[in-house]
Design brief:
By secondary structure, this protein is of the alpha/beta class. The chain contains 10 helices and 9 strands. Helix 2 (about 40-50) links the parallel strand 2 and strand 3 (about 55-60). Bound molecules: S-adenosylmethionine.
Length: about 260
């Protein structure tokens, strides 16, 4: 009997229809796949049934890593590490399709790391990821809404994001206390070039530090009150951070880079 470790966000997906649906979301036949947190290998089995070329898995839990080795033998390449410490860009020369019923306590950290570390190329073909619903709602939130913020701005910069479905706690064992949502992320062909994505992190952090306050103070902090930027981007500093659309934040990041270069 496996005892789930709360500290590693272990809630295992057991609903066969949902597992099948996830594995069917992308054609992975003869493709390279990376699964984050395979746990007991529930989703892994469905992935392997689709005849991928290679499957890498990253699992932090030593016990699971050993069990996966025994269960799947040489069908898997097991990386027994913390996903936050792995350089996923060098795992494979082929672009990978990433699956993950992510540990919810670090799901935003994983996704932000992947986006902020993106170079000129994409190391993945697509991401098929499960999040806590509340987090997924923030990822896909539109501007002028309460849930819109740093996560929406950073995630939508280079990715087209789609919600596939919501999933109730009884699809998992042990049951989580919250609903979950499944999202897909595909690389955008066109996006606003920001030289160092960490600048997007910086400006969104400063703008959303006080999300109910007017834009004036964070703007002055970042741009020394430079009115040319306001004029160019048609920004009214009496608005709140949630009232600026995605494009304005990406263009602000570019202006911030110009100012510092
Ligand atoms: N994929 C399995 C499923 O759907 O049944 C398990 C998903 S469970 C929500 C999250 C998995 O991620 C667990 O197996 C856990 O051990 C693993 N995990 C947690 N933190 C991790 C980390 N930092 N790096 C790699 N794996 C991690």
């Amino acid at each position: 009997m496996i005892k789930a470790k709360k500290s590693l966000g272990q809630n295992f997906l057991k609903d066969k229809n949902i597992l099948k649906k996830i594995a069917n979301l992308s054609n992975i036949e003869d493709k390279v796949v990376l699964e984050i947190g395979p746990g007991t290998g529930n989703l892994t089995s469905y992935i392997l049934n689709k005849k991928p070329k290679k499957v890498f898995v990253i699992e932090k839990d030593n016990e699971f890593a050993t069990n996966l080795k025994n269960k799947f033998q040489d069908k898997l390449i097991i990386i027994n590490e913390d996903v936050l410490k792995v350089d996923e860009t060098i795992i494979s020369k082929d672009k990978v399709t990433v699956f993950g019923n992510l540990p919810y306590n670090i799901s935003t950290e994983i996704l932000s790391k992947w986006i902020i570390n993106l170079k000129d190329f994409f190391w993945f073909e697509c991401l098929i990821l499960m999040f806590q619903k509340e987090v997924a709602d923030r990822i896909i939130a539109e501007f002028n809404t309460k849930k819109y913020g740093r996560l929406s701005i950073i995630c939508n910069w280079r990715l087209n994001i789609k919600k596939i479905c919501d999933i109730k706690p009884n699809a998992f064992s042990p049951k989580p206390k919250v609903d979950s949502s499944l999202l897909t992320f595909y690389p955008k062909k066109k996006f606003i070039k920001i030289k160092d994505p960490k600048n997007l992190e910086t400006i969104t952090r400063i703008f959303f530090n006080q999300r109910r306050k007017m834009l004036k103070k964070p703007f002055n902090q970042l741009f020394n009150g430079d009115h040319r930027v306001l004029k160019k981007l048609k920004i009214d500093t009496a608005l709140r951070p949630q009232n600026l659309n995605l494009e304005t934040y990406y263009r602000l990041a570019c202006e911030y880079e110009k100012l510092r270069s």
